[in-house]
């Protein structure tokens, strides 16, 4: 499992909303709340860790974006996300705002 985590951590990247839109349209985009580690969520999904994933869904810590959210992101041309591909999904997390 450590190898998978390291492998996923290496593929973690930044993506613009324009690049993510096709995945959202295919219902393959999953938003991960800031309280979770994006790589840990990717590992759980890749390993089919149903208990963790169901818990996060139940707590609304991971979810598919709403049409309202997507419209908001669409209107912000510079919107960027941390992104991780875990086939067939793309996991995204809005970076925390630096103050």
TrEMBL record:
| Domain of life according to the entry | Bacteria
Q: What is this protein called?
A: DUF2288 domain-containing protein
Q: Which Pfam families match?
A: DUF2288
Q: Which InterPro entries match?
A: DUF2288
């Amino acid at each position: 499992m450590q190898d998978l985590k390291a492998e996923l951590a290496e593929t973690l990247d930044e993506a613009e909303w324009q690049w993510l839109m096709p995945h959202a349209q295919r219902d393959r985009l999953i938003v991960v709340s800031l309280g979770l580690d994006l790589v840990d969520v990717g590992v759980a999904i890749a390993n089919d860790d149903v208990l963790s994933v169901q818990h996060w869904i139940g707590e609304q810590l991971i979810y598919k974006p709403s049409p309202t959210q997507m419209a908001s992101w669409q209107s912000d041309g510079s919107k960027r996300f941390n992104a991780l591909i875990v086939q067939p999904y793309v996991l995204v997390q809005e970076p925390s705002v630096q103050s």
